[in-house]
């Protein structure tokens, strides 16, 4: 029954997304004929006759539902239609770009998994020796690195200067090394940080104490603890597969890779609906396949205890005590001092004679391509950047937890994860207009999906724990179970996960602003600083280094602060039950 409801939810959510895509020109109140003509011929002047001819050719006068009906009829027969811009067969274009993106995603996932495992090794070792877990600062900093900036640095260093790898194109496996690193390092940092968060809780479960008391080898305990923590991370890996396939447009642009991400973004901007529908269909199919594979893997790892309600309850990880809190405060104080310093300077003053000037006494962080002081723009953009990104992360956290606890939203989560942020931006801009509010709503509309998947995975495990089963036997109601069992177990790790999304949220907001859908220039913003100065990164690295380091500092502060609770004497401690003493976590082993 649950499988049928999940399948129905997937079909309904996918159908809703395809319907919204078909309504895109009408929702955004733009003339699709004019957009298509500009995409075909650039800025060449257009005539009313040409616009009328394009409308008739594309059938725009028949309305969106006619277009969607024709597209569905063609889909039944295996025909995705023809591109409105190039006239090429959509099926052939999507198949070619998907094959490239699928290969790139596979390489990037190898990098991500290798980095995640590397980050988890110290946690595994400390778990077996019962010492405090690592702070996760390295993972937090790596997760904050902008993918497009990392791609530019790698291309400049290893392709242009050293000549070790191709700088552009997709001709051989060597062409995939640099883009795979650019995509895989931030993704692997997120996966590794989530695993670092789940492992201490696994080491605190009762079976670990029993095994230690019976002299089990440390390697065997570590292996089973990793297996116990893996089900909480697997849903993020499934979402990462789709994200690396469809949201890699910036990295594909740096390396001139003809992938699906760039194709989808270009189709959305050009209102090329047949091509956009084809890209979305492929991404949705990949999302469903990844979700099914992840579901099967999770059930295999959890075993019969999932259905029997015999899993140990989620434990609460402790942190590193006051030392990490002091370190986070010191790092935040340094960043705040830099921001205050920048607030004393003029962020809009243009000095063309000082374009791309290196750091000096007059300009401590150098200048950008228009001669504006980078320190001033960094300081004045801090409040807007961090406040808006924090508000979006908070909204995504609330939505993610609420929708993740609802069992019928699994299909909606997969669809939201497959939806490109640019498409959400275009839809929201049509409703709210261009500006920071519209960009924030657009990013939040897709940013809740990873948090919802994490919430759903943790909630499913907690519902199958022994103490929840015991509470139900003693007559506890659903609201009591939700408040005193599920939420107390789910909220802390999901909140720490939400802090990892601050830097990606900032960059997503900046990408929409860069396309004219968010804040408009010359308003200073950290993400805009990165994107505006990216073409000059090789000549003037300071112009991009300052905002990148600021984002990395924020990521490090949050990582330290999120692991600073508790005294840090053990890796984790069992979560106290608020119902009865008889509802303590079960002592079953993970196998």
Describe how the helices and strands are arranged.
Blueprint: H1 2-22, H2 24-27, H3 32-41, H4 48-58, H5 64-76, H6 90-129, H7 137-143, H8 147-161, H9 177-203, H10 206-213, H11 218-246, H12 249-255, H13 260-269, H14 273-302, H15 305-308, E1 316-317, H16 322-343, H17 374-405, H18 410-418, H19 421-432, H20 436-447, H21 449-463, H22 466-473, H23 478-500, H24 502-514, H25 526-533, H26 542-562, E2 572-573
Antiparallel strand pairs: 1-2
Helix pairs in contact: 1-14, 1-18, 3-4, 6-9, 6-11, 6-14, 7-9, 7-26, 8-9, 8-12, 9-11, 9-23, 11-14, 11-21, 12-13, 13-14, 14-18, 16-17, 16-26, 17-20, 17-21, 17-23, 17-24, 18-21, 19-20, 20-24, 21-23, 24-25, 25-26
Top keywords for this entry?
591 residues; 2 strands; globular; disordered C terminus
What does this structure look like?
With 591 residues, the chain is mostly helical. The chain has 26 helices and 2 strands. The chain has helices at 2-22, 24-27, 32-41, 48-58, 64-76, 90-129, 137-143, 147-161, 177-203, 206-213, 218-246, 249-255, 260-269, 273-302, 305-308, 322-343, 374-405, 410-418, 421-432, 436-447, 449-463, 466-473, 478-500, 502-514, 526-533, 542-562, and strands spanning 316-317, 572-573. Strands 1-2 form a two-stranded antiparallel ribbon. Helix 9 runs antiparallel to helix 23 (478-500) and helix 16 packs antiparallel against helix 26 (542-562). The longest helix has 40 residues, at 90-129. It starts with a helix and ends in an 18-residue tail after the last strand.
